[in-house]
Amino acid sequence: MSSRARRVVGLGTGVVVCVGALTLAISRLDGTRIVASLLAVRPGWMIAGAVCYLLLLPLWALQWSLIAPRTPRSGPRDMLAVVAMTSSILNTTPFLVGESAAVLFLVSRAGLDRMQSVGVLVMDQLLVGLAKVGVLALAYTLVSPAEWLTRGLGVLVLLLAAALVGALVSRRYVPSVREVLARGVSPGAIALAFVKKATEAAAMLCVQRAFGIHLELSSVILVLAALNLATLVPVSPGNLGIYEGAVVVAYRHYGVALETATAIAVVQHAVYFAVLALPGYGWLAREGVIRARLATS
Question: Collapsing DSSP states into helix, strand and coil, what is residue 39?
Fold first, then answer.
């Protein structure tokens, strides 16, 4: 069996396991309580949550415009198209497809060369990893540290250290990577990594309030920490099932009813997907029309 076939089989197995586990879990829930929770949702808070999630795209675009080497098309406006299209692919396709698409978009839309584009992705993941370590460390100080939180923080620190070593080695031999890393360690780029996490936490807090749940702020930090760990390695497209499970586990830690926690998880993921995955398809469709016109001219 070829390596590609093994990846396809592995992905298919992961999706089947996730969907099967999710189906089994749903079959044990009280459907009427879930429906009641959904009907009681407050639309104002839900809209506020969607707006917070939507802000992640321009923040992401601004961060990439700071990281990327200067070109006539690497400003925040063009980067917004790049990150929106990248987000759409990342949230609807298997592992590594979104990353490959990001390189393509950075080359074709932002005017970077291939190595510069790879450098932007590497620096982006370093900054994401740094922000995740910050979230887990904050959760560790605010919540009675569970075993999974302690181990997760340790694993994430080791992965971040390994990625940093790899980036520093690449910096020595690849000039374009050296330039991206130098730009990526700027205070603005680092600050935006944490602002993005704070914005995501604010969105989760709004969804929580939409369901009439009023827990301490640490609950949102724990949900975010659980998601950061559960989605560290994508198993299913869009982290379907994994995302919901992480949210449910975090809310059950605070005694939220299983049905209510499940409803929050499903709605939160749906809002996240709608806001971060759908807008990019408008740019993708437009790019397709433009390419078709150029091809026929």
Answer: helix
